[in-house]
Every structure is written in structure tokens, then in C-alpha cells.
From TrEMBL, chain A:
Name of the protein described by the UniProt record: Carbohydrate ABC transporter permease
Bilayer-spanning residue ranges: 12-34, 68-95, 107-131, 143-166, 187-209, 247-265
Domain of life: Bacteria
Annotated signal peptide: none
Family listed: Belongs to the binding-protein-dependent transport system permease family.
From TrEMBL, chain B:
Subcellular location: Cell membrane
Main localization (coarse): membrane
PROSITE patterns named among the record's database cross-references: ABC_TM1 (PS50928)
Membrane topology note: Multi-pass membrane protein
Low complexity: bias regions: 1-19
Domain ABC transmembrane type-1: 110-323
UniProt keyword annotation of Transferase present: no
Region (Disordered) residue spans: 1-36
Keywords in alphabetical order: Cell membrane, Membrane, Transmembrane, Transmembrane helix, Transport
Family: Belongs to the binding-protein-dependent transport system permease family.
UniProt-recorded name of the protein: Sugar ABC transporter permease
TM segment ranges: 42-70, 114-135, 147-167, 197-221, 242-267, 302-324
SUPFAM superfamilies, alphabetized: MetI-like (SSF161098)
Length: 279, 335
């Protein structure tokens, strides 16, 4: 694009304001995490009176943060891995094969995406209670219930996006492999999936972020032993007091793994989104 | 793919006209028919896991949710909920009669939620589009800004909300400190309760959601060929005209998907108010999902929550019919 002077000035102003909007809360998270407790008890200050790493040490003792961390990792990783695998299968079927009930299936997948989680929460809770009474399989307050819930919730978007992505991959690639004696599934795994890697990484990141950040179901379907991070972090506040510096330190700690993962896959993410969802 | 589109319907008539297939190597046509059958079998097999999960976690709970709406289900029956008494339309009458306090609250909440969606979506789209257009041009520091703008999307949404709750703190939060330092307020207003709560909710939501719009629009804009701009510039079109006549039309399909997706996410918003205000939102900032949550899990009136959910579901079904028509191009899966 050929840039006029007006364009440059507008760009400078808009990007400066946007950067401030984005940076201020982020700065406050970081600055607060390094503040001593008396700093966060009084009037807000932009600059800590002294820098301390104490909150990052204390936060592990104040609440069982390590346990919450382990719970979140188990639930999120399992849900993400299964969700990616299942959406690969379903999207391949939608993109390449014709089978009975294909259109109803695609419609149901698309439409469940728009229903709010709140619609499913109470019925799921009741169903899980009933299953436990009937066959003794515990799902409330257990990893399993949370895993299958999260995994199912990221399926619609993942299938929708990945099937779009797979459609963009030339059919000739797998046909050539099949002529060489490979089965259809063999061709899918050896030829199609390596090419579709950006799309797969994009839906994996999507499922991961969804599960890692989920609040509503975690608030009802977990108990003290399986509490995940979003709910666990609330333990830093009591009726009378909030340990803001430790809360911010913990917030940074829980964000760091996915920020790093996110930055690492950023380029795949943009490629995956533009190829899958947009076309 | 059109030749294989209806294998089940084509198979019987063909086999009837040819009762005894000739021995020897199968003809090309037969091979193709066998392939179609195998494809259909494999297709069904591949969607079984997804379909089973959809059924168990989405479809069946939705039906049970509908059942709850017609039953008097509260704390007394929770342990043995299948025995809850049938009450017909009682829950709907109780919850949705605008003459009663509960009914008036429901309609006010629905209206407020629509307003919330329109405001947040509008700002989100404008900010995302502006950032995408500007970051698609080249200048120093572009890479840093591109990464920075994605950070609010990369961190868990509840972490951003925690930071904003800290900033909006009435007694000595950053917002009130800044406003009184600038001499704009004499007395510290409350931001997380009362009339200002809706404003706080909107600001935090825009902060949390605009990077997603930015990401999607940037991806779409990057696909616009550079030559289009060069040709327009040769013809003397200003940057502004280039935006209206090249960028906007070329990202329209991404736009349609983005706007509808975000509208639905926002309409069902729960995380932002839950972290910002706690389990019970202030009345002035109550949205539909937190209202149903409050009826179900704070007041333990599941029947009423179920009735509201069902109504919400019907509304969203109407929207989704339009959505699918717009987002799913006709014949896309038969290509």
C-alpha cells in the first residue's frame, strides 16, 4: 500500500492508543506481582516502593497452587489431545468422503457451537449424578467429567475449521499415495496430516486455550481434589482481604506456559486460521 | 464427487438390472461403486467418536434441560431429580410474565445483553480492523506490536479480568487513583457495583475480545493481493477509498463469520462477569447467562433456570438458522 502522510499520522495515533490500552493492565499485573504486601494494601502506586520476589515464593504456600497446576495440566492436555484426534477424523470424513447423514451431522456440529455453556451445565451435572448412582462411575468432581466436557466443547469449532483446511489440500496428494498401495487412512496419516500441520496446530491451540481458561464448568464439576487453576486462584481472596500481589504472581505463573506456547505457534495460527476459517 | 453423491440410492437399481455380475476383473464402474461404499463406511466410522460425544454432552443434556423446564425441580428433588413433579407451563408463567418482578428482570436482562453485544462487538471490530490494517503496512516495530496485541488473547481470559478487577477497585484501585489525581472526581465512585458496573463490564470485554477480531481480520487482510492496492493507487485512489473499495469487500467472508461468532460468544458471556463481580452480578450489569446461573445455582430454582434456558435456546436456534445459511455456503460439502 502506498502510504500518504495522513495514513502515517493516523497509524501512529491509533497504534499508540491501542498499545496503551493493552499494556496498562499487563504492566499492572507484572508490577503488582513484584510488590511487597504493604504496597497493595494502600493507595495504588504505579511504581513499587521496593521490588521483591516474595509473592512468587509465598503463593505456593498460601494456597495449594501446585495441586491446581497439576489438575489443570492433566485435564487440559488430555482434552486437547483427544479433541485434536477426534476432529481430524471427523473433518477428514466431512472434507473428503460422502456418507449418509453427512449434512445433518455437519449442521448439528455447527449449531451446537452457538449454544451457551449454561444450557448444558445443570443437565450434565444431573446426568453425572445419575450415572454415579446407577453404575458407580464418578464424573462429578472427577477429571473424567471435566475432560469429556472440555473436549466436546472445542469439537465444533475445530471440526469446522479443520475441514475447511483439509478441503484446501489437493486431493491428488492422497490419490497418488493410494495408487501406490496405501490405504485411505494410511494416506491420511502419512500424506495429508503432515501438510495440514498448521491447521492442526491451530485447532490444538484453540482447544488448549479453551480448556485452560474455562471457568463455568470448573466451578461446578470440580471438588477440592480436582480444582483447576481458574477456580483455585479465587482462594487468594477471603471475605476481608485479597492478597493481590500473590494473586498477580500466580496469574503470571499460570499464563506463562500458554503465552510461550502461543508465541511459538503464532505463525501457524495465522496460517491455519486464514486457510481454514476464512476461505 | 457428484457421481458418488448417492451411493445408497444408486446401488439397488444397478444390481437389479445386472443380477449376475460377470466373473473376471471388476469393471471400472463396479470398482468405483465399491469405493463409494467403502468411503461411506469409513466416513461413518470416522465421525462416530465426534457424534457420540456430541450426543452425550450436547444433545441429550439439551433434551433433559427441556424436561427440567416443565418440572418443579429445586433443592428438595436434586438427589432424586427424575421424581420431580410435572408442573406444565408454571415455570414459564412465573419467570416470563413481564408483570412479575422475575419476568420483568428477565426481559430487562435480555435487552441489556443485546445492548452489551452491540456495543462490545462494535468497538471490538473497529479496534481489530484498525490494528489489522495498520499492522499490514510496513514500519519499524511492527513485529513487536503484532505480538503485543495478541497477548490479551494468549493469556487466560480470567487473568485479564482479575487485573481489571484490581484496577476498578473502589477504595484505592488504579482507575480511581488516576481520576482523582487528574482532579476529575471528588469522591471515589464504585465501578464493580451499581450503575457503573455495566461500563466496567463493557471495557473489560472489549479488552479481552478485540485481539481475536484483530487476529482473524489480519489473517484475511494478508490474503488481499498487494497488486490490487498498487493498481488503485495508480488510479489515484486515496488510502481511505482503497480501504472501502478493496480491503473491506475482500475480507467480507471472514467478516461474516467473525461477527456472528463473536456475537454468539458475547451473548452467552459468563467468564467476564463471573470473575469481575463474583457469582452474583449486580442487577445493572446482569447478562442472560449469569442470570440463569444465579437462578439455578444460587437460588436453587432449577425449573425457572430451565424455562429461561429453553427460551434462550429457541431464540438462539432462530439466530443459528440464519447463521448456518450465511456461514455454510451451499453445496460446500459436495465439492
Amino acid at each position: 500500500m502506498i502510504e500518504t502522510r495522513g495514513f502515517r499520522i493516523a497509524r501512529a495515533i491509533v497504534l499508540t492508543l491501542l498499545s496503551l490500552f493493552v499494556v496498562v493492565p499487563l504492566y499492572i499485573i507484572v508490577a503488582t506481582a513484584f510488590k511487597p504486601l504493604e504496597d497493595v494494601r494502600g493507595r495504588f502506586t504505579w511504581i513499587p516502593s521496593s521490588l521483591t520476589v516474595e509473592p512468587f515464593i509465598e503463593m505456593w504456600r498460601t494456597v495449594p497452587l501446585a495441586d491446581y497446576f497439576v489438575n489443570s495440566v492433566i485435564v487440559t492436555m488430555t482434552a486437547t489431545a483427544l479433541s485434536v484426534l477426534i476432529s481430524i477424523f471427523a473433518s477428514y470424513a466431512i472434507a473428503r468422503l460422502s456418507f449418509p447423514l453427512k449434512r445433518p451431522f455437519s449442521l448439528v456440529i455447527l449449531s451446537t457451537q452457538m449454544f451457551p455453556g449454561i444450557l448444558f451445565l445443570l443437565p450434565l451435572f444431573l446426568i453425572f449424578t445419575q450415572i454415579q448412582r446407577a453404575i458407580g462411575l464418578q464424573l462429578n468432581g472427577n477429571y473424567l467429567g471435566l475432560i469429556i466436557t472440555y473436549l466436546t466443547f472445542s469439537l465444533p469449532f475445530s471440526i469446522w475449521m479443520l475441514s475447511g483446511y483439509l478441503r484446501g489440500i489437493p486431493r491428488e496428494l492422497e490419490e497418488a499415495a493410494m495408487i501406490d498401495g496405501s490405504s485411505r487412512l494410511g494416506a491420511l496419516f502419512r500424506v495429508v496430516l503432515p501438510v495440514a500441520r498448521p491447521g492442526i496446530i491451530a485447532v490444538g491451540v484453540f482447544a488448549f486455550i479453551n480448556a485452560w481458561s474455562e471457568v463455568l464448568f470448573a466451578s461446578v464439576l470440580t471438588n477440592n481434589d480436582t480444582r483447576t487453576l481458574p477456580i483455585g486462584l479465587q482462594s487468594y481472596s477471603s471475605e476481608s482481604d485479597v492478597l493481590w500481589n500473590e494473586l498477580m504472581a500466580a496469574s503470571i505463573t499460570v499464563s506463562l506456559p500458554i503465552i510461550l506456547a502461543f508465541l511459538f505457534v503464532q505463525r501457524y495460527l495465522v496460517a491455519g486460521l486464514s486457510a481454514g476459517a476464512v476461505k | 464427487m457428484t457421481t458418488l453423491s448417492a451411493p445408497a440410492a444408486a446401488a439397488p437399481s444397478v444390481s437389479a438390472s445386472k443380477p449376475k455380475p460377470a466373473p473376471g476383473p471388476p469393471s471400472k464402474r463396479q470398482r468405483r461403486r465399491g469405493e463409494a461404499r467403502r468411503g461411506a463406511r469409513l466416513g461413518l466410522l470416522l465421525i462416530v467418536p465426534a457424534a457420540a460425544l456430541e450426543l452425550a454432552i450436547h444433545i441429550i443434556p439439551m433434551m433433559i434441560g427441556g424436561w427440567i423446564a416443565f418440572h418443579d425441580l429445586d433443592q428438595r428433588h436434586i438427589r432424586n431429580w427424575t421424581q420431580a413433579p410435572f408442573v406444565g407451563l408454571d415455570n414459564f408463567i412465573r419467570g416470563l410474565d413481564p408483570g412479575t418482578a422475575t419476568g420483568a428482570e428477565f426481559f430487562a436482562t435480555a435487552g441489556r445483553t443485546v445492548l452489551y453485544v452491540v456495543i462490545v462487538l462494535g468497538f471490538t471490530w473497529v479496534l481489530g480492523m484498525a490494528a489489522a490494517v495498520f499492522l499490514n503496512s510496513s514500519f519499524r516495530g511492527r513485529g513487536i506490536l503484532r505480538t503485543l496485541f495478541l497477548v490479551p488473547y494468549a493469556i487466560p481470559m480470567y487473568v485479564g479480568c482479575i487485573a481489571w478487577a484490581f484496577m476498578f477497585n473502589q477504595r484505592d484501585g488504579m482507575v480511581n487513583t488516576l481520576l482523582s489525581d487528574l482532579g476529575l472526581i471528588d469522591e471515589n465512585p464504585f465501578w464493580l457495583i451499581g450503575d457503573n458496573a455495566f461500563f466496567a463490564l463493557v471495557v473489560v470485554s472489549i479488552w479481552s475480545y478485540w485481539p481475536f477480531a484483530f487476529l482473524m481480520l489480519l489473517a484475511a487482510i494478508q490474503n488481499v493481493p498487494q497488486e490490487a492496492y498498487e493498481a488503485a493507487a495508480l488510479d489515484g485512489a486515496s488510502n481511505w477509498r482503497q480501504f472501502w473499495h478493496i480491503t473491506l469487500p475482500m475480507v467480507s467472508s471472514a467478516n461474516g463469520a467473525l461477527v456472528l461468532l463473536m456475537a454468539l460468544w458475547l451473548f452467552n458471556q459468563f467468564t467476564v462477569p463471573f470473575v469481575l463481580f463474583g457469582p452474583a452480578s449486580p442487577d445493572q450489569a446482569m447478562l442472560v447467562s449469569p442470570l440463569i446461573f444465579s437462578n439455578s445455582f444460587l437460588q436453587w430454582d432449577f425449573g425457572l433456570g430451565g424455562a429461561m434456558s429453553l427460551l434462550l435456546l429457541l431464540g438462539l436456534l432462530a439466530v443459528s438458522a440464519v447463521y448456518i445459511r450465511m456461514v455454510l455456503p451451499k453445496g460446500r460439502e459436495d465439492d
